[in-house]
Amino acid sequence: MHLKKLELFGFKSFLDRTGFNFEPGVTAIVGPNGCGKTNVVDAIKWVLGEQSALALRGSHMGDVIFNGTDGRKPLGMAEVSLVLDNEDGSVPLDYSEVMITRRIFRSGESEYFINKTPCRLKDINELFMDTGIGTRSYSLIEQGKVDLILSSRPEDRRFLFEEAA
Amino acid sequence: MHLKKLELFGFKSFLDRTGFNFEPGVTAIVGPNGCGKTNVVDAIKWVLGEQSALALRGSHMGDVIFNGTDGRKPLGMAEVSLVLDNEDGSVPLDYSEVMITRRIFRSGESEYFINKTPCRLKDINELFMDTGIGTRSYSLIEQGKVDLILSSRPEDRRFLFEEAA
Amino acid sequence: TRSMFVETFRKVNEQFGRLFRSLFDGGKAELILVDERDVLESGIEIIARPPGKKLQSISLLSGGEKAMTAIALLFAIRGVKPSPFCVLDEIDAPLDDSNIGRFARLVRESSRNSQFIIVTHNRTTIATSDIVHGVTMEERGISKQISVRFEKEGRLSAKPEPALR
Amino acid sequence: TRSMFVETFRKVNEQFGRLFRSLFDGGKAELILVDERDVLESGIEIIARPPGKKLQSISLLSGGEKAMTAIALLFAIRGVKPSPFCVLDEIDAPLDDSNIGRFARLVRESSRNSQFIIVTHNRTTIATSDIVHGVTMEERGISKQISVRFEKEGRLSAKPEPALR
Ligand SMILES: Nc1ncnc2c1ncn2[C@@H]1O[C@H](COP(=O)(O)OP(=O)(O)OP(=O)(O)O)[C@@H](O)[C@H]1O
Ligand SMILES: Nc1ncnc2c1ncn2[C@@H]1O[C@H](COP(=O)(O)OP(=O)(O)OP(=O)(O)O)[C@@H](O)[C@H]1O
Ligand SMILES: [Mg+2]
Ligand SMILES: [Mg+2]
């Protein structure tokens, strides 16, 4: 099971619909400071169900919607889709590809979809329960956070091991 | 007024007496991970009177004394000397060069010297009072801390401005 | 679940020690349960000693040494219970050239079992990837994806962007 | 001393805005007193808007943008009340090539009034320095100083150490 494609539309600095194709192996994301690389990471966290605006560097969820530039108006909605390769059947759905989509409006309301069918966040969490996707915090290391595990208190480190157990 | 020379002796990974000459302008300190560059920065903080072991990455002051390697025994004392150019007379002493020295023993006791004459830390602080040396926290930015001023709370940022006022 | 945790802990510990020795070319690292009688609540202590150096608190390690130690631990946890993909945002920032090479080799090795998505500014890290996605902001404030360079058999041959170092 | 603080605040604010525009090639930044009626206790808010982008909370800035904003503020404070020397430990770590060039130029400019001691792994930063001190650990765990390269008129011509990038 691996990621095949990530599509951002109106998510943070990605005004226009933008796609990133992924292959098994190693994908590098490069570019100058402030160009949007960490925003791509945020999009992955977000479409997998991140509930904390703080974890996405904002103060409310609406902060992820493209909010305009000198030359462009803000949008009213943000949408991210993630397509996963399910050839090995690790996701309990009868599809070789699974697409999860999340949308948010200025009201702060999120909508979720599995293969374009509306669903609840709960359904997505259950879908990925056995795969470890979205639930294992050692799957995503944020910028500047690599040595957090060393500087955290012994009791606070446990959760990584509990996730792996 | 500028730094002329820093000498480390038994300070952290600097077992043997090691000197660094400085000139006005820009000095770069380079080398691989773990070779001792930040230890040089720690030595400057320490000789200027740093009282917090935590600020030097340790848990007690004795942690700054060379504590041995596979092939070498620990030392019983650490000493750092800093020589300042005082041609402009900004330090109220009748010398064109001022040397401050700090020593520490395993007992945790620190000794201080101005031009090799024993003195108290208080004397060193008073000496530098008008120069801003050792007292202005914007004179030294630690590894990984550059954006601390942005992530700190508005009330906590004041002190930098108060120092500059 | 107590035995599950103990078993996981034992395996992670074994991999952590092995990965650390491989990344540091020697030395020793291990995990210690603070309270062995209360395995399900106990904090986890990290012991790490680079080759040739004496054992000290991990707080005294250098910036790069801390990053490498954290990487060894995170990859040890991944080794015990891999997740389908792993996103790393600039975790190579504090590393020198030689450590970046070791890190890149570890990622290549681990990418046989997991997909890696790595945000980086570093040419060595980029050179070990299979696909490179560039992110740009030609129009200020608007992110776009550009120039995927893709070499399935062999290394990336295209010249990296001017924005990279 | 209330008027002293207000005056310092005003000057730092003016330099901060100017330095930010210079480092970002446009945009706008300023400092705001949270409580203007209680100047001696008020927190200080930071507003920063890179060119072309909409004004948002500084938390949404990228890693490199945060570092450049913090550098603008720190050097603004230095500009108002310089200290004789300034020690910077790897503050260029999150910057891309173009920003490192701007940072290096700012340091060169500021070094007319203050002495700078910079720990770095970056070749561009090193190339703008007057002296380079190498630190090595040939014998494991023992730091030594080596190869000072020193060119008073003109740039460093020696080839950097293999440990640098
Ligand atoms: N809702 C939004 N609308 C438009 N732009 C946004 C929004 N949220 C964040 N941004 C912009 O995205 C930029 C940050 O992008 P990001 O953090 O992805 O940069 P980066 O490529 O990771 O850079 P670095 O190398 O410095 O870490 C900021 O300049 C910010 O202004
Ligand atoms: N009291 C001590 N005795 C001997 N060695 C010590 C002592 N205190 C710290 N060290 C060693 O100094 C090393 C750290 O050095 P330092 O932090 O200066 O590295 P650095 O050159 O800044 O590296 P980086 O580029 O990774 O930041 C550690 O490996 C540690 O073992
Ligand atoms: Mg980033
Ligand atoms: Mg360091």
Structure description:
The complex is a heterotetramer, with two copies of chain A (165 residues) and two copies of chain C (165 residues). Chain A has helices at residues 37-47, 121-128, 148-151, 154-164, and strands at residues 2-9, 18-21, 26-30, 77-85, 97-105, 110-114, 117-119, 140-141. Chain A is an alpha+beta fold and 165 residues long. With 165 residues, chain C is α+β, with helices and mostly antiparallel strands. Chain C is 36% helix and 21% strand. In chain C, the strands form three sheets. In chain C, strands 1-2 form a two-stranded antiparallel ribbon. Chain C has a two-stranded parallel ribbon with strand order 3-4. In chain C, strands 5-6 form a two-stranded antiparallel ribbon. In chain C, helix 1 (2-24) crosses helix 2 (63-80). Mean pLDDT of chain C is 90; it is low at 152-165. Classes of the chains: A alpha+beta (165), C alpha+beta (165). At the C-D interface, helix 3 of C face helix 3 of D. The complex binds adenosine-5'-triphosphate (2 copies) and magnesium ion (2 copies). One adenosine-5'-triphosphate (ATP) sits between chains B (12-13, 31, 33-39, 63-67, 143) and C (50, 53, 56, 60-65). One magnesium ion (MG) binds at residues 37-38, 143 of chain A.
